[in-house]
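Hi team,

Filling in the usual template for the complex we talked about on Friday. All components are listed, including any nucleic acid strands or ligand strings, so the model treats them as one assembly.

SUBMITTER: L.P.
PURPOSE: interface mapping
COMPONENTS: two
RESIDUES: 878
SEQUENCES:
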Amino acid sequence: MTEISAADVAVPVVLRVNGDEYRITAEPRRTLADALRDDCGLTGTHLGCEHGVCGACTVLLDGEPVRSCLLFAVQAQDAGIRTVEGLAAADGTLHPLQEAFWRHHGLQCGFCTPGFLMLSAGMLESCPDIGDDELREALSSNLCRCTGYQTIVEAVQSVRDAGEA
Amino acid sequence: MGESDHSRGRPLIGESVLRLEDRPLLVGEGRFLGDVSFEDELHLRVVRSDIAHGVLRGVDLDDVLAAEGVVAAWAADEVAHVPAIEFRMTGLDELRPHCQRILAGERVRYVGDPVAVVIAEDPYLAEDAAELAFVDIEPLEPVLEATSPEAVAPLTLEHEHGDVEAAFAGAHRIVELRATVGRHSGIPLETRGLLARPVDGDGPEGDRVELHGIAKVPHYNCATIAAMLGLAPGQVVGREGHVGGGFGIRGELYPEDLLVTYAALKLGRPVKWVEDRREHLVAANHSRDQAYQVRAAIDADGVVQAIDADFFHDQGGYVRTHGATVPNLSVALLPGPYLVPSYRVRGHIRLTNKTPAGTYRAPGRFESTFVRERLLDRVATEYSLDPVEVRRRNLIPAEAMPFDRGVSTLGTPLVYDSGDYHRLLERLLTHVGYESLRESLAQRRRAGEMVGVGVGMFVEKSGLGPFDDVRVRRLDDGGVEVVTGAASVGQGMETVIAQICADVLGVDYADVSVRHGQTDMIGRGMGAFASRVTVMTGVAVYMAANELAATGEAAEATFHTDHMTYPYGAHAAVVRVDEGTGGVTVERYIVAYDVGRAVNPMLVEGQIIGGVAQGIGGALLELFAYDPDGQPLATSFMDYLMPTVAEQPPVEVLLSEDAPSPLNPLGLKGAGEGGTTACGAAIAAAIDDAIGRPGAVTALPATPELVRSLLRT
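RESULT (copied from the run log):
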C-alpha cells in the first residue's frame, strides 16, 4: 500500500491548446487525452482504445498528428496543441475538411471523426499534394467502424484537390 | 441545425440530402457518454475474473477499501437480491437457468465475468484500487468448443417442413458440407459506458435516476432496470446522447448497467463507468461462432430438393438478453433466396467458457449465408455448372411472391413480402461484366497470379414490429418537432425521419427536429435494432404527419405490424491471394441490394459500404481466439484485427427499388445489414476460384494461416 497520494505527485502543467492556455495540475501518469478532455473540458478528442491503435484521440502537436492516449500531459508542456475544437473558424464557418466530411457523408456515428479530421489536417498541411496511395496509407492509421472509409477518402481527396487545407 | 440545400415543398423521399446530425459531430460538440460529467460524480471500475471457469471461493476487498479515493467496493453478496438479467427477445424457458447475475457469486464462467465493483472519486484511483482486489478462484476445466460433449446443452431448436426423407431417397446426388464461422463481433469505436445520476423528483414519481449512455433500446432498458432494482417504471429515465456505433452489441442490457445504477442509488451521487477497450473485448457481447454440418438432396438438374442441417451455436458462458435470437434466425434464414422445398434443421445451443454471445449485424444470416452459398458452390462443382447458373436454377421466382417459407422467426411468420431475385442477380452480373471478368481473371491466373471471383446471394430481414409511436407538432418558431421512442446509433435516423416528415408537410427537412431516446418524452418505444427504424418509425411519422397536414393539429400515430419486410441482395468479390503468405487482398467488391424504396440513397449506400467493411473483417481478419485454458488471445486492437482503409476495397453499390414492400404505405425495407450478410460467402468463393480449389474454404475468417495451409495440401 503506497503512502504517497495521487495529489502529492501531481505537478503544474501548462497546455497551449487551439491558442488558449490551460494551467492544470496533473499527475505525471495522466495522459494528454485525459487532460484535454477532463482538465481542459475539450471532449471532442475521443478515446477508442487507449493503446494507440484506433487513432480516435489524434491531435496535432506542433503540427504533427499524434495519439494523445500515448502521450502524458507533462510531455505536451510547451508544445502547440490543436484539437478538433480549433478547426472551425471563430464565426463557426466549418474548416474545408469538416465541410467535405459532411458533404461526402464521411461520418456516421461520428466517434472516430475528430481523429480523422486532425489526422487529415496534419497530413494535408505538411503534404498538400500528397498522392492517392500515400493518402490512403496515412489514413490507414485510424480506425472507423461505420463508414467503410470510402467516403472519408473521397472527402479528404476533395480537399486536397481543391488545395483548401 | 445544419443548413439545408432544399427549399420548401420539394419532394424529399428519395433524395440524398445531407445529414442533420453532422455539425456537432464535426466540430467536437458530440455528447457521447464519456463527454457527460457532473460535479460530484464517482467512478466505477469492475473487477473481473481472469479464470475462464472456476469456483469462486471469495473476493477480499479489504485492501481495496483502504485505498486512496475509494468510496465503496462490493462483491456479489451486496447485490444478491437483484435477479439475473432476463431475455429481451426470443426468451425460452430452457435457457432461463443460464441467465447472467450482475455479479458472479459461486462460479465464474468466462474471463471477464464481473465479480466485484470498486467506486472511487477518480477513475485512475478506481482502477488502482481494483488491482488490489484478491479474487480467490479454484479453477475448473473450461469447455471451449460448442461441439464438445462437455458443453452444457440447454436446448436444440428444431424445424422441419416438406418431405426431407423422400427428397433424399430420390436424390440424384447428395452433397455434404461442414463449415464454421469464427467468433467475432461489432466492436463499436465507442466502448460501452453509463452514467447514472440520482435526481430529486418533484413530480408524482418522486426521486428518479437518469441514465446517460443508454442506447439502442432505452425504454426497454429503463423499465427493466427499474423492475430489477425495485423501482417504479418512471423512476428510471433514459437520456440518450450520441452513440458511437451500435451493430447489435451496444445498448443491450448488461450487468454493468445494473451495477452502475445500483451504485448511484445506494451512494446518492452520480456514478460513471466507461469501459476500457480490453474490457470491451472480453465483456461486451461476442457473436457468430457457429459450426454447421449440412447435407443436401440435389436433383438431376442441380436443383436443391432438400437441406438437412445441424449446427452448433457457441453461446459462451451465459445466455444474455437475446435469448435464442441468433440461432433462431439461422434456423429460419438458412434456405435464403432459394426454393428448397424440404428442409430440416437442428440448431444446438451450447454453453462454453467464453464471453457470452448476442446479435451482431446480420445475426444468423452472415453465418447461414456462408454455409448455404458454400453448399451451392459445391453443387456447381459436382455438376460442372457455373456457380451463377446453379443459383439461377434455385432462386425463388418473382411470381411466387409473397413466398411463405413455412417457418417463423422472432415471433413472426417468415413470408418474403416481395422480390425479384433473378432480376437482381442479372443486374449484378451485367454490372460486373461477369463473363469477361471471368475471362480476364483466367488470363491473369495463366500469367501466374492467384485471382478469382465469387458470388453470394441472400435474403435479409428488416422492419421488426410490433409497433412504433410518433408524435408530431408544429413549433412556434415555424419548425416541426417529431418525438419517437426509436433510438440513434449513428445511422442517420434523424435525417431520414425528418425527410419523411418534411416530404409530407412540404417543409424544409432542416426545420424538423427529431427527439429520440428520452424515455420521459414518450410513453413507450422499441428503439433501434433489426433494421427497423426507417420502416417502423418512418411509417409512423408518415401517418402522423399526414394527420397533422389534414387537421392542422398536433398528431400522434402508431404503426403496427405483425410482419417483417425482406430486402435481398447479391454480392460479388474479386480477390487476389499471395501465394507466399496466404494473404488475401479484396480488389473489388460489388453489392446489389433491393431496399424496396430508399428514403436517402446516400445513407443507404453508406450503410452498405460500412457493412461490407465489417463483413470483410469477419471473412478475413477478425477472430476471438482462446488458448487451451480459455484465456482470450484478442484483448487489444493489436490482436483483434479490424479492416483499415488499407484492407478495404472500392465498393460499388447497385441500389435497386424493384420490390417495394406491400406491407407499408411507403414500400420501405431496411438497409442496415445487407452490406455484411454475404461477405463471407462471396470472399470464400473468390478465394476458391483464385487458388483453383473449389470448395476449399470452409472456415472463416480465412486468415493467411488458413489459406497458406490450403495451398500446402
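MY TAKE: Chain A is about 35% helix and 15% strand. Chain A has a mean pLDDT of 96.

Thanks, L.
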